[in-house]
Amino acid sequence: MEKEQIRTLEERDVTEKILGGRRKTVIIAYQKVFNMTLMYLMVPFSIFILTWVKTKIAVPCLLLLGIGILPCFRGKSNSQSKVELQKAGMVYLVLVAVFWCWSAGIGGFFYQSPDHHFRNAVFRDLIYEKWPVIYEEYGTGMVYYLGIWIVPAFLGKMLLRMGLADESVWTVSNAFLLLWCSLGVVLLIILLCLYFQAGRASDIAVLVMILIGFSGLDIVGEIWNNGLNVHNHIEWWSEYFQFRSNTTSIFWAYNQAIPGWLMTILLLSERDMRNYGLILGSALFYAPFAVVGISLCITVMIFKAFREKYREGKIREALRDFCSYSNVTAVFAMLPVMLAYYSCNAGCDFKVRLVWEDYGGFSVKILTTWICFFLLEAGIYICLVAKSEYRKPLYYATAVSLMAGSILAVGEMGEVVFRISATMPALFVLMCFVMKIVLDRKKKQGVKNRVCAVMIFVTMALGAVTPVIEYIRAIEAIQERGTVCAVADDLKTLNSEDAPENFIGKNIQESFFYRYMMPPTR
């Protein structure tokens, strides 16, 4: 009798779990989160192409893109992947996502790092200037990766048409920008939960702490170089090279970091190649350098997929996946538009070179510095995860991507945007390797495993000093200025003779995009 009662209670437990009853859980399917994330990434591009490109080009591109997206939404290859999240964990991850974005200065309701001077100018011009944004007085136009701002700016334009005052429009638009970025981080954390099958609130807490705190050992390099005279931006301790922590990335370049991370976790989560092209294409409007940076990793993943299908005697299936509607339509509908648009940028005429060309050429000092830099920023993590990942080609592709990305320079002399942004996806993959070890509850609890766990914990704790210093700098600035909203908003507009070249195109009327693709300005 007791066994029957126990069985009845267990069955009731299962029923309550499915219905989200007393167990307070919610079941989330990967396919639904994938659809939401793809929409999050694709809606800005759709708005852009409808407003910045001639109708006769925009409509066919969107129709073609729709043909490729529909099979993705009805895809079955990943639909069985689900995770049961505790509702307490869901509330926690939403609050953390909003806090992280708010404290990064997104929206201007907290301290903003100096790069926000430029990002606020871009956002303001998107709201108050006509689309496409052309500065006729100087013959320039806005040419930048605008994805993160398009939807909030579009809302701002609607509010302007409704007669709302300019200052009110700016405040509301910034609030919506904060919510839009927070939504991106929420989707990111849920995708990580799905990837690692982490549904318990404690697992989500660990995952989020690693996401926010993950960094190389900048503090070790800083002390090695400067002793105890620690600066407030220690990621430049090596002088020549830099990898950004996740928190530094969202503090300084949230417009590239959030979509770049979403692109990376989507690619890691896919079970076949059918959606690779669309995922990469959806990130082009947000973070083109991140797309370039993940190219080696995605090449290795494609090669691995072909090899597995070949061994199974299903090479035709592999070719069908590679040439899927999603991949082909993304190439033809998105790539030409983005290439034509980005080619207008004033900094587009560049050469690829090695970092030391900006510092007087190769030297023993630079080589020694790079070896120390790479060891502290990525090498230790690469060694710590080797035992569990060394059989996987992605492990080696990640290491090589970080090595190559750290020494390549693109753009003007001294320009660091490319190598910082291009290494972002590989750093995220490396973080996922670390997360896997930390969250894996099936590993043996032997002496070697405990030693490895301690080493990982110590490494991450030292790395977490970098995001802590980001927050210390923010608090100091708030105290100095006497306001929480310590914004970086001096530039105001790119409509000036000395506008930064990274954000504009010069002689815009002579460009291919302006002459053949852009609608006439009114």
Write up this protein.
There is one protein chain. Helix content is 65%, strand content 5%. With 522 residues, it is mainly alpha-helical. The strands form three sheets. Strands 3-4-7 form a three-stranded antiparallel sheet, with no helix packed on it. Strand 3 and strand 4 form a beta hairpin. Helix 10 runs antiparallel to helix 11. The chain is globular and about 65 Å long. The relative contact order is 0.14.
How confident overall, as mean pLDDT? Answer: 88
Number of helical regions: 24
Class of secondary structure makeup: mainly alpha
Overall, the morphology is globular
Mind telling me the C-alpha Rg?
A: 24 Å
State the end-to-end distance: 82 Å
Instruction: Give the beta-strand count.
Output: 7
Quick structural gist:
The chain is mainly α. Helices cover 65% and strands 5% of the residues.
Present the secondary structure layout.
Elements: H1 2-19, E1 25-29, H2 30-52, H3 55-73, E2 82-86, H4 87-103, H5 116-128, E3 134-135, E4 140-142, H6 147-161, H7 166-196, H8 201-213, H9 218-226, H10 246-269, H11 276-284, H12 288-293, H13 295-311, H14 315-322, H15 325-333, H16 335-342, E5 352-354, H17 364-384, H18 386-389, H19 393-407, E6 408-410, H20 417-422, H21 424-439, H22 447-463, H23 465-481, E7 504-506, H24 512-517
Antiparallel strand pairs: 1-2, 3-4, 4-7, 5-6
Helix pairs in contact: 2-3, 2-6, 2-7, 3-15, 4-7, 4-8, 5-6, 6-7, 7-10, 8-21, 10-11, 10-21, 11-15, 13-14, 13-19, 17-19, 17-21, 19-21
